[in-house]
Specification:
about 400 residues; alpha/beta; Rossmann fold; binds NADPH dihydro-nicotinamide-adenine-dinucleotide phosphate; binds 1-deoxy-D-xylulose-5-phosphate; binds manganese (II) ion; 1-deoxy-D-xylulose-5-phosphate reductoisomerase activity; oxidoreductase; DXP_reductoisomerase_C
């Protein structure tokens, strides 16, 4: 029996993960469910899935969590805050960690799980973008194993020789292609995006996801973050990573080999496939996802991304060339700008402008420990926030 911690259980990935886990009660048991602030939703999930532990990140909600679990007659133990989370990550009773907290907030727990030698199913791409080097070191230190859950990286992993993670160092691989849906604004000019609303930006054509990643998809920053994620997960240089727009989101990504073969992974756009793959690897289990109906699909389209209309993708490639300091600043500025957009304090086009001004203003010196990385993250957030205030 594999004991699974679902970090970010109340989110979109959390929901898909719990669906797959509950399809295989003989194989997987929920060890921990965690949430940021939605304490009532967390209690509901605990009543349904009966984990050993529940954790709320916001420590002011600890009493509400404990009282809610007890009122339901549940034996689930209540916890709160980052220290408790790091301790639970180190518990030998936990085998697998699904890292699905959104944003930089997911970085400490991903590192703790890696140091503790767990199998990590990584959805939280922001932690790789700001700490890919630290995550690699933590995996080496703890003997942990990382399985990519982001659909494109999961596809690349499936197209590589079994268990291979160093695609960039293999002489038989030319490069990889990450597919992008193009988001809800595909085909539009930059100027036409000036007045788009939060609702329009969050209406992804193919995937049902949390608000932050939905806005990232709309700006193509999601693909930029994924380019950086691929760099760290597969040891690839920027020149070895291509982005192609594929509006149907059926081909999840591809690997070009030197003999002219291109391997791709296809499937309906449903994150349960990648989560089931990560949970069971190297075996496969039912994910509840329907088989592709190729005749009904009938066609698959591909086009080049429009970097004029969507400069965030260009900014991500530039940040990657500056190294981990550049990508840490890019990520922090993007999180602040997207949050301001979601609060209707910033226009959609301003997101890229805030990121570019932050990259130009903040020194990109990252250091090589968690503390200096968090300091740089904070510095970038402060600059981005001040820039947003100046624009109001
Ligand atoms: N959704 C998808 O299909 C995909 C998502 N991803 C990545 O997975 C991650 C999660 O995405 P998604 O599920 O869509 O996001 P959601 O917004 O749906 O869920 C986010 C989860 O993180 C929790 N959370 C938020 N802030 C904090 C915090 N400060 N501390 C601890 N927990 C927190 C939330 O808790 P609460 O509900 O209490 O706020 C919630 O459980 C992101 O990094 C995203 O880029 C990658 C590929 C696909
Ligand atoms: C499901 C998933 O992995 C998302 O990251 C998805 O790729 C978003 O779609 P875009 O291709 O529009 O960014
Ligand atoms: Mn993705």
């Amino acid at each position: 029996m594999t004991s699974v911690a679902v970090l970010g259980a109340t989110g979109s990935i959390g929901r898909s993960a719990l669906d797959v886990i509950s399809r295989h009660p003989q194989r997987y048991r929920p060890y921990l469910l965690s949430a940021g602030q939605q304490v009532d939703k967390l209690i509901e999930l605990c009543a349904e899935h009966r984990p050993r532990h529940a954790l709320i990140a916001d420590a002011t909600l600890f009493s509400a969590l404990r009282a809610g679990l007890s009122a339901r007659g549940l034996s689930t133990e209540a916890h709160a805050g980052p220290v408790a989370l790091a301790e639970l990550m180190a518990d030998p009773a936990c085998d697998t960690v699904i890292a699905a907290i959104v944003g930089a907030a997911g970085m400490p727990s991903a590192l703790a799980a890696a140091r503790a030698g767990k199998r990590i199913l990584l959805a939280n791409k922001e932690s790789v973008v700001m700490a890919g080097d630290l995550l690699r070191a933590a995996l080496d230190e703890g003997g942990g194993e990382l399985l990519p859950v982001d659909s494109e990286h999961n596809a690349i992993f499936q197209c590589l020789p079994t268990g291979s993670r160093n695609a960039g160092l293999r002489p038989d691989i030319r490069r990889i292609v990450l597919t992008a849906s193009g988001g809800p604004f595909r085909g539009r000019s930059r100027d036409s995006l000036r007045e788009v609303t939060v609702e329009q930006a969050c209406a992804h054509p193919n995937w049902s996801m949390g608000q932050k990643i939905s806005v990232d998809s709309a700006s193509l920053m999601n693909k930029g973050l994924e380019v950086i994620e691929a760099h760290w997960l597969f040891n690839l240089r920027a020149e070895q990573i291509e982005v192609v727009v594929h509006p149907q989101s059926i081909v999840h990504s591809l690997v070009h080999y030197i003999d002219g073969s291109t391997l791709a992974q296809l499937g309906n756009p449903d994150m349960r496939t990648a989560l089931a793959y990560g949970l069971a690897w190297p075996e496969r289990i039912d994910a509840g996802v329907a088989e592709l109906d190729l005749v009904r699909l009938s066609r698959l389209d591909f086009e080049a991304p429009d970097l004029q209309a969507f400069p965030c993708l260009r900014l991500a490639f530039e940040a990657l060339r500056h190294g981990i300091g550049g990508t840490t600043v890019l990520n922090a500025a993007n999180e602040v700008a997207v949050s301001a957009f979601l609060q209707r304090q910033l226009g959609f086009l301003d997101i890229a402008e805030v990121i570019e001004s932050t990259l130009n203003a903040v020194s990109l010196e990252a250091g090589s420990c968690v503390e200096t990385r968090l300091q740089l993250d904070q510095k970038a957030r402060q600059w981005a926030q001040a820039d947003i205030s100046r624009r109001k």
